[in-house]
Amino acid sequence: MLIFRQLFDPQSSTYTYLLGDSAAGVAVLIDPVFEQVRRDAALIGELGLKLSATLETHVHADHVTGASLLKRRTGSRIMVSAAGGAEGADRKLVQDDVIAFGQRRLLVRATPGHTSGCVTYVLDDSSIAFTGDCLLIRGSGRTDFQDGDPAAMFRSVREQIFALPDQCLLYPAHDYRGLTATSVAEERRYNPRLGGDIAVGDFTGYMNNLRLAHPKLLEVAVPANLRCGRPEIDQEPGADPPDTDPPDTDPQWAPLRYSFAGVWEIDPHGLEEYAGRVQILDVRETDEFTGPLGHIEGAVLIPLGQLAERSGELAPDRPIVAVCRAGSRSAQATVILQQAGFTELANLNGGMLRWRAEGYPVEGGSA
Ligand SMILES: N[C@@H](CCC(=O)N[C@@H](CS)C(=O)NCC(=O)O)C(=O)O
Ligand SMILES: [Fe+2]
């Protein structure tokens, strides 16, 4: 079965697409964003997939790609268009190349115009195409930098994208109004720049008068993306560390896993091993703490409803693992503690139920 997810980066209004073959357990990501690598890796893990490759639709000007970080984390191969001029890819793509993931395939169509190296990825059965910043929903990518060329874009849209079947769904790399998808038939008819009887001269006139401000991150993003998103620090040993931690610097105080829900989780066996180095915070009600499930030795009890005002009772310099019955209230406890300024936080996955089911010891409780 095909797995398909549309993911959004609110900072740059970028869409990242996950495509997977569930039977083979293999996935590819189109246009991953540097700051969202941890989120994307969590989703891929939770879906039981292995990332085989990241694919760029083009050298982006408004955000840095997550391709290199994902390669470092998951071993995924970096694929970019040969015409884009980026260094450090594992595969350089040209027109009609085929990218396999499990039993499914994506086909490469060169669609220059926004940049000279733009490509569109078409799913094997032509049911879905990923148009990058060539065709946007009722719009198009800009053509005023990075070798942009309105006439080339006009040809790309008319000859490569509008040539797809009417019902083919189109997914762009960006949308600035929150629109998510469109189709060939509706864009052919309703795209105000490229649809209907509009001719190349009309389109060029439109595009040459867009008067858009340059992307805020242009000067940072383009050079980084020409390295496939590899942080500069890798290239220059001894250089100053970056101001902010890259999003793949995971907490080191215990074996933690980031969830797509946005919470750091620890498994029972991890907590047992690290119990002596952390504060165990039980956020259930008092009668649950002393009830049949028992509690973990050394756990401090602060019911969730009191946590915001009583967080000062916790040591600020020791990591905290929050615990509850099934692991949901304790996830919220990590959110409350983060708001209170604590940084080293994790949720016991599955709570006391899983802790006991896996045979770890409790104080109190019934057998
Ligand atoms: N304000 C945005 C501008 C983003 C932008 O220029 N996006 C390009 C794609 S990389 C584009 O083609 N935009 C079309 C449009 O804004 O209509 C930023 O600073 O990042
Ligand atoms: Fe772009």
Structural overview:
The protein has 367 residues and is α/β, with parallel strands linked by helices. The protein contains twelve helices and 20 strands. A six-stranded mixed sheet has the order 1-2-3-4-5-6, covered by helices on one side. It has a six-stranded mixed sheet with strand order 7-8-9-10-13-14. Helix 3 (150-161) crosses helix 5 (200-207). The radius of gyration is 25 Å and the shape is elongated. The model has no long low-confidence stretch (mean pLDDT 95). Bound molecules: glutathione and fe (ii) ion. Residues 12, 60-62, 133, 139, 141-142, 174, 176, 212, 215-216 line the site of glutathione.
Considering the chains and any ligands shown, give keywords for the structure:
single chain; alpha/beta; six-stranded mixed β-sheet; 23% strand; 12 helices; binds glutathione
